[in-house]
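S1.2 Input.
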Amino acid sequence: MNDELKALVDEIGRKSYDARVGHHGLPEPFDANLWQALETSGLTRLTTDQGAGPAEAAVVIGELARWAAAVPVAETDLLATWLAARADLTVPADGPLTVAIADVDGDGRITGTARGVPWPAVGPVLLAARSADATFVAVLPPGSADGAPNVGGEPRGEVTFDLAADDVVRLPRAVAEELVRRGAWARCVQIVGAFDAAARLTVSHTGERKQFGRSLDTFQAVSHSLAALHGEIERSRAAMTLATFAAVEHGFGSAEADYAVTVAKVAVGRAVGPVTTIAHQLHGAIGVTIEHQLWLATMRARSWADEFGTTGWWATRLGRMALAAGDPWNLVVGP
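S1.3 Output.
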C-alpha cells in the first residue's frame, strides 16, 4: 500500500517540480496546479478524510518535500483540519488551510499576534491560542502575505487576533501541546525528505563531474564526505521512523509519541548543519542558486529545523525528561 502511495506522490511531485523550473521566487508562490492534483487524488486530507494514519501521512509529506512542493499539505491535514475537528468547528471541505499558534494570558478577550504562520494567505487560519491551562481555538480569515518568507522561500507571516470569549472554543492545554508535537513530527519528516533530495543530487553530481580525468566520487576525500552525509541522513531517518511508529501505535497525544518526537526533533535538527554543508561543498557554486533543486532542499531543511520549536528547545526538553525519569537508561530502553 505505502509503495503504491509513494509512487503516486512521487509522480505528482516530479511533474510539479518539472513544471516550475524557472518559476521559483521569494516567496515561493502557492502551486495551485499541484494542490488540485493532490486534492483530486485524495491526498490533501489523507488522515482526516481518508482514514489514513501517520505512516501514510509520512509518505505523502516526505515525498512532497523531496520535490520542494509549494503546498501546505501538512498544515492542512495533520494540523488545521485535526484542530478544527477537536474543537467541532466547521472549515471548508476542500482547499488549503493553515494554523497559527500564539500565547495569551487567557483573561477576558483573547488577543495577540501569531508569528511565523506558514502559508498565511492561502486559506482559513485555525488559531490555537495557548494560555497556562487552556487552548483557545477559532477559525480566522486568511492572513497577510506581506511577511518575509523563511530562508527556503516559503511564505511566512503574522496573524493578529482580538476575540471575545464567545468567539473561541476552549479546550485543554494538552490540545496545543499535541498540535505542536504534530507540527514538529511533520517537519522532521519533511527534513528527511529534503535530505533524500540533497543526497540524490550530490551523488549524481559527484558521479558525473570530472576532475583530472576522474569523477569526483573516486577521490578519497569526496567518498568520505559522501559516507558522512549518508550516515547523518540514516541516523535522522531512524529517529523519524521511531517517532512515526510511536504515533501509529499510541497516537500523537501519548507519552510514547511525546518522547519519540522529542528525540526526532533533536536528532534531525542536529543533522541539518552537516548534511547541508557537505552537499553544498561537494556541489561547489552550482548548488547555491535558487533554481537549483539543492538550494530548494537544503534551505527548506534549515528553515523547518527551527519551526514548532528549535533544536535547542527540544534538546532542553529531552534533558528534562531524562532528569524526571530518574534513570535516563530506563527512559531510553523502557516500554
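S1.4 Remarks. The chain has a mean pLDDT of 92.
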